[in-house]
Amino acid sequence: MNKINTIIHKEWSEVFKNRMVLFTTAFLPLLLTAIPLGIIYATSSSGDFSGISGDMPSEFNAFCPENFSGGDCFQVFIVSQFMIMFMIIPLAIPAAISSYSIVGEKVNRSLEPLLATPITTTELLIGKSLSAIIPALIATWLGFAIFVIGSWIMITNPVVIGNFLDGRWLIAIFIIGPLMALSAVSFSIIISSRVNDPRVAEQVSMIIILPVLAAFFGQMAGIIILNVTFMVTSAIVLALVDAILVYLSIRLFQRETIITRWK
Amino acid sequence: MITTQNLTKKFDQITAVENLSLEIPEGEVFGFLGPNGAGKTTTVRMLTSLISPTQGSASVNGFQIGEQDIDIRRSVGLLTETPGLSDNLSAERNLEIYASLYEVGDIKGQVEKYLRFLGVWDRRMDVAATFSKGMKQKLAIARALLHEPRTLFLDEPTAGLDPEASRLVREFILEIKQQGRTIFICTHNLDEADRLCDRIGVFKTRLLVVDSPITLRRQVFGRKVVFHLVQADQALVDKITAHPHVSEANLIDHKIVVTIDDPEAHNPELIRILVREGADIQFIGELRRSLEDVYLQLVKNA
Ligand SMILES: Nc1ncnc2c1ncn2[C@@H]1O[C@H](COP(=O)(O)OP(=O)(O)OP(=O)(O)O)[C@@H](O)[C@H]1O
Ligand SMILES: [Mg+2]
């Protein structure tokens, strides 16, 4: 436990000296929280949007409860689009941190002395993973909390607020978010074992945000409806993907493999 | 204390280490000498439980590799081929992290002890990247000493360092040597092995020979004595060659180079012969072969 703690703090003191990592961990959540709040602010202060509902895709009816006005519905739609984008946070932060922490270690050639200490590879892997997952979850949850508080202040219709806080988004933030962070870490460990430039590792690891973009455009095109079923299915699929990625990363993260096969 | 029996490591097609059997007593400084690709690093990695042998067994500090790996890692220190410091962390932080991973009780105390031992206590807050190559290497050796290991493995401690930095590191190793630890040094640097090591093993996939540097020189070439004469000719050389303990004698200018066993016992006899034959002896000296000659000879024949 002590050693895991040491590794976590070691990673943080190293990785947060890097501008790219800092940018991803601080600026990205800020941006992705500020934009939906800005939209809410703009749409609630500029009066009636009821006329807009006629231009909305027909799937919209499934999207909004019947008692919603056109303006409310527009607000809910736009915000839920950005909520999808918000899910980039628990993917991008762990990918950036673990790319820099593992490939950085390769560049410094510090993995071998590290592995020569009495730490187990499991402890090292857990330490490295947590050092990437913890900031991601803090940023995700903090960003979400700010968003909820902000919209609470700006939105007068409690039904709309309830819509942001319903089961779907709670599943997204508290279940899918952590699962995403785990998949991003495991994926970038796999990538990092093959790559010698932290920037390349980070860029390749960012492939993992593609499904989020797919959901973004899917909902925009009306192909995907983000209901509870969709969220639960996503969580289950993600858990399976996680199991595979974690299994692969553990297999790669063996002393002898790291020393002799990582290039 | 290091013991190995038929230690072997194969990578797919390549045999990196073959049937290595060694015994290194507590407190010895052992030089592991071999050309590039000889398998030195591979051996050290097996002995520090980083990789497992394909065959054979070994014990370090009484712990069996493959069975008591954590105990081995707790009781040995390793300087890897490259120092592997966290470049953007301070010297102090670098050591603190390792002290904690090595389960050191008094982290602050041990880190301070070694920062002072290195003479960088005043620069402890500076990031490792700002240190000179020699200092980085010393810092990396200190990092391997924080938990006071009984056995220390140094993989090419002065490789890539300029002469001054090399001397810095060598003096550091000599200081550590005084503390009675077993030290296993991999090196290409024969001069260094000569100066630091009690015994040297010359190695190229297989162990070619193990002995003290002095004995090694003698074993491979016999001992040579040079007689500087005012005037010398072949007749004199023939007289010397006739001596039963002389295996070879050659005339070079006015010098006779004699290969002889036990020169301490037989030189007086040779001197008497030369004087009797009317030779005027100016100097007598032993021809010292450098360890490099020995090494090249051994590796060439391997
Ligand atoms: N991970 C690996 N995979 C395949 N072959 C390897 C691996 N590591 C080492 N070898 C091979 O094993 C042999 C011994 O390598 P090793 O690094 O132990 O030599 P060395 O004596 O330390 O050399 P150097 O003086 O260059 O450091 C070499 O032929 C090398 O190519
Ligand atoms: Mg080597």
Characterise this structure.
The complex is a heterodimer of chains A (263) and B (302). With 263 residues, chain A is mainly α. Chain A has one domain (2-262). Helix content of chain A is 78%, strand content 0%. In chain A, helix 2 (19-45) packs antiparallel against helix 5, helix 5 (89-108) runs antiparallel to helix 10 and helix 9 (167-192) packs parallel to helix 12 (228-252). Chain A is elongated and about 65 Å long. Chain A starts with a helix and ends with a helix. The model of chain A has no long low-confidence stretch (mean pLDDT 87). With 302 residues, chain B is of the alpha/beta class. Chain B has two domains: 2-211, Rossmann fold (3-Layer(aba) Sandwich), CATH 3.40.50; 223-289, Alpha-Beta Plaits (2-Layer Sandwich), CATH 3.30.70.100. In chain B, 37% of the residues lie in helices and 29% in strands. Chain B contains eleven helices and 14 strands. In chain B, the strands form three sheets. Chain B has a six-stranded mixed beta sheet with strand order 6-7-8-3-9-10, sandwiched between helices. In chain B, a hairpin with a 2-residue loop joins strand 12 (246-252) and strand 13. In chain B, helix 3 (91-101) crosses helix 4 (107-118) and helix 5 packs parallel to helix 6 (163-177). The longest helix of chain B has 15 residues, at 163-177. The two termini of chain B are 28 Å apart. Chains A and B meet through helix 1, helix 6 and helix 13 of A and helix 2 and helix 3 of B. Adenosine-5'-triphosphate binds at residues 11, 14, 16, 34, 36-42 of chain B.
